[in-house]
Write a structure and sequence with these properties.
single chain; 392 residues; mainly alpha; Cytochrome C Oxidase, Chain A; globular; membrane; transmembrane; NnrS; transmembrane helix
C-alpha cells in the first residue's frame, strides 16, 4: 500500500496506528503495573496508562472515524492527502512527547500532546462549517471538552501528581460520544439487515426516548465527573447514575438485540454498548455503597468494554461504507471485538476480586493485545485487497 493510497481515507492511517499502538501500550502496561518491569518516565504508571489510552488511542481512532464519516454525512468527499498526513505526524509527536516527558518537562509534554485534539477539532469544524451541517456542532463541543480534559489532566498531574477530574472528564466525553454516535449507528445498522426488513417489529428508530436517555446519561456523567463530598452528595450522584443506567438498558431493549443473532458485527456492537448501562450501574453501586472497587469496575466497563469493544466493530463498517464495497458480515472483526469484550469482563472480575489480579489481569492484557494486533493486521490486509480490486 503506497503512502498516497494509505492517506486516501482518514480511517486508514489512524486505525492502523491506533490498533498497533493500543496492543503495544497494553503489552508494556501490564508488566509495568505488576512490577515486573520499570520505565523511566515523568508520568507515573497509572497516569501514563490512562493518558495514552484516553488521549492517544481513543482520539486517534476517533479521528479516523470523523475524518471519513463527517464529510460523508455532509455530502462532501472524505478528508485526504496532506491534511491527514499532518494529523498523523502530530499524533505521533504526542506519543513521542510522552516517552520523552522526563526531558520535555510537564509544560512541554502537555503542549505537544494537546496539539492533536486541537487540530482534529479545527479540521472537523471546517468540514461542518463548509457543509453548513449545523446539527453536527455537538461533535465540535465534545471535541472541545476533550481538549479541556487533556489540559486538565496535565494540570492536575503537575499540581497533585495524579489526575482525577481530567481522567473522568475524558471518560465521560468518550461515553457520551458512544451514546450519540453508537446510539444512531447500531439501530440504523440493525434495520438495514435483510432478515430485519421482512419482519413486522423492527428496531425502534431514534426518538425522544433516545434523546432523554442520552440527556440523563450526560447529566449522570457530569455528576460522576464532579463527584466530591464537598460538592455533590453521594446519594444524589448514585441515584442519577442508577436512573441513567436503567434508561440506557431500556434503550438497548428497544433495539431488539435478540434479532441480531445472524449478523456477528451487529451482535457484538449490541454487547459492547451493553457495557454502557453496566458501567452506570457499577458506578451507582460505588457511590451508594461507598465501594472503590465497583468504581474501578465501572471505569473499566466504560473504557475497555464499551469503548474498546466497539472500536473494531464500528471501524469494520466504515471502510465498506465509504470505499464502495458491499456491506456484509465480517467475522474476523466480530471475533476481535468479542475478544476485547472477554478481556473487559476478565479485567472487571480482577478489579472486583483483587486476590486474583495476578492471574486475571495478564489474561485480560493478552486478550486485548492480541485482539488489537489482529485488528491492525486484518485492517491492513483488507485495505490492501480493496486497493488491488479498485486498480484492476
Amino acid at each position: 500500500m503506497t503512502p498516497t493510497a494509505l492517506l486516501r481515507y482518514g480511517f486508514r492511517p489512524f486505525v492502523l496506528l491506533g490498533a498497533v499502538g493500543s496492543a503495544a501500550l497494553i503489552a508494556v502496561w501490564v508488566p509495568w503495573f505488576l512490577g515486573l518491569v520499570s520505565l523511566q518516565m515523568e508520568l507515573p504508571p497509572v497516569s501514563w496508562h490512562a493518558h495514552e489510552m484516553l488521549f492517544g488511542v481513543v482520539p486517534g481512532i476517533l479521528g479516523g472515524l470523523l475524518l471519513t464519516a463527517t464529510p460523508r454525512w455532509a455530502g462532501r468527499p472524505p478528508v485526504a492527502g496532506w491534511l491527514p498526513a499532518a494529523l498523523v505526524v502530530v499524533w505521533i509527536m504526542g506519543r513521542l512527547g510522552v516517552v520523552g516527558s522526563e526531558a520535555l518537562g510537564p509544560l512541554g509534554t502537555a503542549l505537544l500532546n494537546v496539539l492533536f485534539p486541537v487540530a482534529l477539532t479545527i479540521v472537523t469544524g471546517r468540514e461542518i462549517v463548509a457543509a453548513r451541517n449545523w446539527c453536527d456542532l455537538k461533535m465540535l463541543g465534545l471535541l472541545g471538552i476533550l481538549v479541556g480534559a487533556q489540559s486538565l489532566f496535565h494540570w492536575e498531574l503537575w499540581r497533585f501528581g495524579q489526575s482525577t477530574h481530567g481522567t473522568r472528564l475524558a471518560v465521560a466525553t468518550s461515553v457520551t460520544l458512544i451514546m450519540l454516535i453508537g446510539g444512531r449507528i447500531i439501530p440504523n445498522l440493525a434495520r438495514s439487515l435483510p432478515e430485519v426488513r421482512v419482519v413486522t417489529r423492527r428496531p425502534t428508530p431514534f426518538s425522544r426516548f433516545d434523546r432523554g436517555a442520552t440527556g440523563l446519561g450526560m447529566l449522570a456523567l457530569a455528576a460522576w465527573t464532579l463527584r466530591d463530598d464537598a460538592v455533590l452528595d453521594a446519594r444524589l450522584t448514585g441515584a442519577l447514575l442508577l436512573i441513567a443506567g436503567l434508561a440506557q438498558a431500556a434503550r438497548i431493549l428497544r433495539w431488539r438485540p435478540h434479532r441480531r443473532l445472524t449478523d456477528p458485527l451487529a451482535l457484538v456492537l449490541h454487547i459492547a454498548y451493553g457495557f454502557i448501562p453496566v458501567g452506570f450501574l457499577l458506578a451507582a453501586w460505588a457511590a451508594l455503597a461507598g465501594s472503590p472497587a465497583h468504581g474501578g469496575a465501572a471505569l473499566h466497563a466504560w473504557t475497555v468494554g464499551a469503548i474498546g469493544g466497539m472500536m473494531p466493530a464500528m471501524m469494520a463498517r466504515v471502510p465498506p461504507d465509504h470505499a464502495g464495497r458491499p456491506l456484509t458480515a465480517f467475522w474476523p472483526f466480530a471475533a476481535i471485538s468479542l475478544a476485547v469484550i472477554v478481556a473487559a469482563g476478565t479485567l472487571i472480575a480482577a478489579v472486583l476480586d483483587p486476590q486474583r489480579t495476578m492471574q486475571l489481569m495478564p489474561l485480560s492484557g493478552i486478550l486485548w493485545a492480541v485482539a488489537f494486533l489482529m485488528f491492525g493486521i486484518v485492517t491492513a490486509r483488507r485495505q490492501h485487497a480493496g486497493l488491488n480490486v479498485r486498480h484492476r
